[in-house]
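Input.
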Amino acid sequence: MHRPKIMFYHDGRHPLIYMYEPPIHKEEFEAGVDELAGTPVEALMFCLGDGRTVLHDTQTGELWGHNVQNWSHPVFRRAWQNAKHLIDEGHDPLRVICDRAHKKGLLLYPTLLVQQGRGDRETDVRCSDFRFENTHLEIGARDGVDPASPAFTCLDFIHEEVRAERLALIAETVAQYPVDGFELQMNYTPHYFHPDHLEAGREIMTGWIRAVYETVKTSGTDRELVIRIPASLEGCYDAGMDVRAWIEEGIVDTLVGQAFSGPEIVHPMLNFRPLVQAAVGSNCRVFAAIQSLVDSDRTQEAPIEILRATACNYWDQGIDGLYLAHWFGNWPYQASFYEKLRELPHPDIMAVKDKFYYIPTETGRYGVPQIEAGLSMHLPAQLEKDKRVHIPFTITDDLPRWSSVGRIHEIILRLRILNMTEEDTIRIALNNQPLPDRQLRIINEMYRMKAPRYRTGSGRWFVFRLDEGTRPVKGANNLSVTLTHRVGGLKPELVLRDVELEIKYLMGKHYHRGQDPDLGSVEWWNM
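Output.
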């Protein structure tokens, strides 16, 4: 079987079974495949409902909504209505997707959300009876876990009953459906053992992964097992997943490293090199999960320039492929969505195109985003007088090369500092070289009445147009900010909230910036 380089995660719900008014038609459900036909996407990773319950005709698991009398939300009822209608009409939803994917030349991998917590029976209408009737199998059933922890109602994989229930659903799926592989999404709620069980739990989890691998392989030798995990090997280990052991034993075909699985935010600076290095000499491939959401005060989904920057940074680390996670947030898909898809497999094509690098920071929906164990965020960063704050960032652009042939239009570095007045002073340096005031423009945002999406705190933008003497280098860079004077009488601390780098290219030496060849239509500010 061809091993795909571009995988696309489709959760099967938000842009599909939630969207169509009951009774959904088979052709409407097939849109989950049709919308990706003719793109670089080679494998559709299709989620099996909620994970605790599913949205296909299972005999081993439980159908979403089979145990519900009163629905807590009408869209959850709609999902049940549509799935039940398709099944009753003889169109098993998962088989419909499998058949349509193969007809359109796509590989199909079902995705199981391996772990998830549980609510109460009255409101958690997506939950299974197995979960409601077996609360003694949960991590919080044993003392020593904070009830407010997301791990509290998660299943404890120390129990054989838990592992058997999960494995049975996987075994049924690969035995009954014409799939090309199977994905375990183990980064959705990465809590698998009580803290007291972690040491023994790692070996138990490796045994369960081995059983899943053997189940997938015996159902079809060309099928591959894909496992999505936190991008940090140490974070995986602390959660009871000994990923290095999986690689050494050869019980996983593809590992997908991911960060911000909960907030689904794109992370241009994520480091996959330890994961790549761990797989050297093995048959295991390493993919980088690239997300699409920015959720800033100015934009929701990432523009193509951010995705280029992120993808190029990832490809440069030696990964084997990209996993497009949560891109279904772009639905309904328009021309800009397909434009983003087109370039992703080709870092050489993206090399000399506009890029927008940024450091993940606070967002509108999540505030300070939660990040997986073993990983960290550099922003926002509090500024204290005479204490230097370091913000590392990485780029893949070979600026000297493209500058030598006249392809660089401009390079813009932007920093936003909250709670800053005109009397405060700071010192900014890039790679230990102070940035001169002649390159600087300050934008005062002490107060804003409106914003494209939501308002942030008061402050100032520092915008540098970098020349050849102050440009970043290919690879690792370091930005430093030092507060040198703070006005008295103000309580709020100064906070470095945003760091952004834009690199803009010309199509050729001395070329205009407009994309329309008719110069008469090119706006003067892009000349």
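Residues 414 and 463 are 5 Å apart (CA to CA).
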